[in-house]
Amino acid sequence: MRGTGLKRRLIAGAIAGGLVLTVAACGGDDDSGSGASGDGGTLVFGASADPVILDGALISDGESARPIQQIYEGLVGTEEGGTELVPELAESWEPSDDGLQWTFTLRDDVTFHDGEPFNAEAVCFNFDRWYNFSGIMQSPSVSYYWNAVMGGFANNEGPEQGESMYASCEATDEFTATVTLTRPSSTFISALAMPAFSMASPKALEEYEADAVSGTGESPSFDGTFGYEHPVGTGPFMLADPSDWERGSQLTLTRNDDYWGEPAKLERLIFTVIPDGPARRQALEAGDIDGYDLVAPADLGALEQAGFQILYRPAFNVAYVGFQQNTPPLDNLKIRQAIAHAINRENLVRTNYPEGSQVATQFMPPELFGYAEDVPTYEYDPELAKQLIAESGETNLDIEFWYPTDVSRPYMPNAEANWELIRTDLEAVGFTITPKRAPWDPDYLNTYQTGNTPMYLIGWTGDFGDPDNFLGTFFKNPNQEFAFNNPEIHQLLQQAEAETDLEARTALYEEANRLIMEFLPGVPYVHTEPAVAFAEGVSGYVPGPLNNESFASVTVE
Amino acid sequence: MLKFVVRRLLLLGPILLGLSVLLFFWVRALPGGPAVALLGERATPESLARVEQLYGLDQPWYVQYSKFLTRAVQLDFGNSTQTNRPVTEEMARTFPATFELAVAALLLAVAVGIPLGYLAARHYGRWLDNLSVTGSLLGVAIPVFFLAYILKYVFAVRLGWFPTQGRQDPRMDADHPTGLYVLDGILTGNLEASWDAVMHLVLPAFALASIPLAIIVRITRASVLDVVHEDYVRTAEAKGLWERTITRRHVLRNALLPVVTVVGLQAGLLFSGAILTETVFAFDGVGRFVAEAISNRDYAVLQGFILVIAALYVLINLAVDVSYGLIDPRVRVK
Amino acid sequence: MSLSQVEAATESDQLEPGGANLRRAAWRRLRRDPVALVGFALIAMFVLVAILAPLIAPYGPRDQPGAGLITPTTIPGPSAEHWFGLDEQGRDELSRIIYGARQSLLVGVVAMLLGMAGGLVLGMLAGAFGRWVDTVVMRIVDVMLSIPGLLMAIAIAAVLGQSLTSVMIAIAVINVPIFARLLRGQMLSQRESDYVLAARSLGVRHRSIVLSHVLPNSMSPVIVQATLTLATAIIEAAALSFLGLGGADPSVPEWGRMLASTQLYLASAPHLALFPGLAIVIAALGFTLVGERLREALDPKYRR
């Protein structure tokens, strides 16, 4: 989960930030001439990129996750607007006392878009499909989340994989599935709510060769048509015709009239690709689209004034300045403290972030259990910073400071602007900053993960509601991103992940937060509330922290 | 004539060969080496080994080059690291869009540039001349992306006359058998879609047209000045033919020849402009795809696209030369 | 993107050799040409601003007089105190524009000189030796010209990495074939001219003829091309910045980068995108106007 994994997750988190929105185009505007039957109309949503493929197991980016969330469903879901788990395809679930067996009681009224029944056999088919991935399919850049959550496959082929947490799945009866694990885990069930674990039609998976792949792990070529032309799930929307996905420009989803729950209100849901943020705003203002995600802070005022709706997701992310302690003088605690005191975080957040953003004190957002109110804090105090530098005994104060280009994340809408403010603050207390930058993907992500960016800007958006998704990802094991080895911190986080009692876990994570902020492996500076914008007349979209919003309840006037 | 065409075709060979050599060594000069450049920096040792074998990277460079050439001739440029699809498929998807845009831009530039150049010549040295020359040069001095932003802001965002981005209204149901959206609408009998595609073309085409405009104005102006002083025009004037008749019959026809040449030579230039214009208007063509390939370090795409674009450019010039040779026999001798 | 590329391909033979007399006459005509005068004025303004930047800029390029005042949606526009308003970091936009002129001038001049030097070497090789040298050099030039300029610059910048130096080299390289073809055309036409034939028949050495007669007499169109190249280099540098391939230090004001990065703030501060854009247009227009009118003044066709 470190290395490539972390990178992938960052991307995924960021993507999630751009998740889902339901907007229905007004009936009046709908000049498609398709003879739309019934009510609902069409919603056009501006996406920042085309989906990679419509197969949840094979993606880790938010622009793929958004439509996948509409087409597919998992065994469990999350409450609207929150991180609590709720039943989805499973009506209920129960772990055994030793935490190794999970029994899922399934809904009995669900069919896939192709008419195939959803049952325990379908559930086990999906789990066994993932577990038996081979060759290129095992590459962390193909099946990122399975790698990250389960850690291995039936037959591991890569050096990165270990023993799989997943052992087996059994269809105890038609609508009861039992999943057996090799070790207890406090994160297994939360992770199942991610699109990576959504249920696909076994028949379509086989018929359209979902696992036919060639090329290389980094540049796989999916030769089957499942994920491109026949993504068959159980969700409220579906790809009605293979030609409805015009690769590179737009994806049109159609309402699933046989949905087991309340059918979607929209007739059609269109995702159209507009890579440039300001261009998405302009398209919304001009009426070309009905809504979009990843609204830039600078656009919020203008959009609000013009009568557009701005919906905010709870702050479920963190942005921080990372240190790599393999590079002096960053291995010196006094220097790290000096940097923390030198950065005017209030000014940074006010200047570059929208109202409502919070200055961060630790590496996870306050919404999560385990957040500690009493961590060591570092007030803006340039004089104290200078004094700490003097005490540190370091004379070489040259630091390479990195930031990414070609990227906009909810926690980091304009990395260059953040970088410039921080640089000014640091040079004011005596550091000499060497500017370094690289395009986000793949150059920047790769460089910082291999420990070649002494000081750098990065951040994280949570995938599911567990502190392990933040602290564990960063610090559970020694890694090159932070380049330190502090057994006390690593062991505490490993212990917290294996612990199943919530109260005990909370205490462990609070303690970890205090320890981490004392050790100061980086300077967290902001939690933001990512914004989604809609035209007037769009309603029913409930923004959530995990960016996994459903468009099913959205209506357009 | 045939000899002329054959001679020009023979020239094509060395150029394409030189290009392939250049691109071959370019990928090898990229940071990290060819395998990393083509796979991305996340590549695992196994995939690197696989690609090294595929491209014969462990063999002497001339063996590698001949492999590269063989694949290039078969139009096999590998997969895009952005979309995981074959580079050739991406070309087939994006070229029609850019072709449509370039044709629209050229038509606009000719429609505006020729009258402007003619006017300038007819008022040589006077303020109308200075004005049209300065105006057309302003088009050269404005960065294309700045002009594109301004056009979009004023005519799409503020005035709402045109869509802000894309090639087609997402709500429009339209089939695209050829990928040329305007033509597609006509072919499928969906004139509404055709009109919608035209509206999407207007602003990007104007932005792109600013580049060839200045050259067309200058060439037209120069040719008209040339022709006006030729004996036959003076004779015509002396015979008392109306200015308008002279214009149509003699001046414009002769002045158009060099313009045709120049229009052919704009292809490469238009392409550079298309990278910027398509990016601003999220116009799903070659330019935008290449711009994204740049920021995603998709070198497989860049390598394939550069080779094909350059080859097209050379071919277009060949076609222009040949057609020019057909029109004007003097060229063949040269 | 490069206008000059097409010109190199089409028009080198339209330009006639210009001797010293012709140049003097051209200069006289240029001084009476209103379009050229406007161009000269724009160039003068641009160059003066670049040279005198520290004297005329009200603030340093990294000073933040507006620190603490700025939020993403409140970026003060032009005022009496800050004529061009503040930027998204609370810096004085006018001062940034003024200092940005230095970068543009530097990139333009260095890229032009490098490109010209490279082109001169290739063109002289081809023009002076002829035969197979000529063929080889000109095929290389053909290959270089077949790649669209911006695409070639991108490819080069990708190899060299993100820095101002690689921007200058990339732009220089795309101008090499243009100068090369231009100069070769000139030298070929000079080689056949009477005075060269005369000199040769008098036994003057080949190198000496090239250096003392052919080259100087080929310079007029090169000067024209150099002027135009300054304009295209400024625009090309802006385009590369726009595509994320600009200089390494974001705190150093660069018009292209300023124009690209302020697109994010278009909704709350449109002035931030306007001023760098206008600055580029003014600088590029100055060189374009002068270059074009100079070309015309040197062209015997227009001497009527």
Short précis:
The complex is a heterotrimer of chains A (557), B (334) and C (304). Chain A is an alpha+beta fold and 557 residues long.
Describe this structure in words.
The complex is a heterotrimer of chains A (557), B (334) and C (304). Chain A is α+β, with helices and mostly antiparallel strands and 557 residues long. In chain A, 29% of the residues lie in helices and 20% in strands. In chain A, a hairpin with a 3-residue loop joins strand 11 and strand 12 (250-255). The longest helix of chain A has 18 residues, at 502-519. The two termini of chain A are 44 Å apart. The relative contact order of chain A is 0.18. Chain B folds into 2 domains: 19-73, no CATH class; 94-327, MetI-like (MetI-like fold). Chain B has helices spanning 2-29, 33-39, 45-54, 61-73, 87-122, 127-141, 144-158, 181-187, 191-228, 231-238, 243-280, 286-295, 299-327, 330-333. Chain B starts with a helix and ends with a helix. The model of chain B has no long low-confidence stretch (mean pLDDT 80). Chain C has one domain: MetI-like fold, CATH 1.10.3720.10. Chain C is 71% helix and 0% strand. Chain C has 12 helices and no strands. Chain C has helices at 3-11, 20-31, 34-56, 93-129, 131-146, 149-160, 164-191, 194-201, 206-217, 219-242, 255-261, 271-298. Classes of the chains: A alpha+beta (557), B mainly alpha (334), C mainly alpha (304).
Helix content of chain A: 25-40%
CATH topology of the largest domain in chain A: D-Maltodextrin-Binding Protein, domain 2
CATH topology of chain C: MetI-like fold
Molecular shape of chain C: elongated
Mean pLDDT of chain A: 87
Number of helices of chain A: 17
- Biggest sheet descriptor of chain A: 8 strands, mixed
Q: Helicity range of the residues of chain C?
A: over 70%
State which percent range the strand residues of chain C make up. Answer: under 5%
CATH architecture of chain C: Orthogonal Bundle
